[in-house]
């Protein structure tokens, strides 16, 4: 077994994790830690130590840049003020229904294109989580990947380390501005057929099969989604909606 890639993988993971942790000065700290490793690699003439140091530094730099783009956006600043805004966004993920103690809710992830609120309007390109419950539950559940929506709600800051710049809780109706393109509509027809074909299966297989085959995560419960994220296997459920949308944009 060749284990030489293990320290490189650990360095890449550690650099990205620290850089996106939200701790001030984290990237500089990683850079300072990588420097003595690089000097040691030169003294020992070890290409592996040098590769580990460079991987650590580059991963931290990329993670820090990504984190800075999210935290410095106008959308994040509005979220820090818990502002009520109007958003124009494109749906990136299937909506998921979640059972709550008092009422059900639904969530989806979209890419915000325009935000207006607090007397300003700005063009953005940031991911945002949209949550809806009560009168706004169906508006989220009916949304399909690739749909352009106009939504209104209150923003708040998400947990550190996530790619979304804000979480929006709906307090107004969801308005459809544009339907998905022809390619995405065809994909949705196939997905609907697969969902129907496994409707008699147990809950977990009923959720997993469409997710693994066509990237349809609409039936996955939060616990199962978190398990995929923890084990680094979320790419297994990203073979349809997001992928097709990105290819169409290209």
Could you please describe the fold and organization of this structure?
Helix content is 47%, strand content 22%. It is an alpha+beta fold. Helix 2 packs antiparallel against helix 3 and helix 6 runs antiparallel to helix 9.
Residue share in helix: 40-55%
Radius of gyration: 21 Å
Number of strands: 7
Q: What is the H-and-E element order?
A: HHHHEEEEHEEEHHHH
What order do the strands of the largest sheet run in, or round the barrel if closed? 1-3-4-6-5
β-sheet strand percentage? 15-25%
Low-confidence stretches: 239-250
Counting DSSP H or I runs of 4 or more residues, the number of helices is 9
Distance between the terminal alpha carbons, to the nearest Å?
Answer: 39 Å
> Biggest sheet: strands, sense, closure?
5 strands, mixed, barrel
What value does the average pLDDT take? 81
Structural class: alpha+beta
Features of this protein?
250 residues, alpha+beta, five-stranded mixed β-barrel, 9 helices, 22% strand
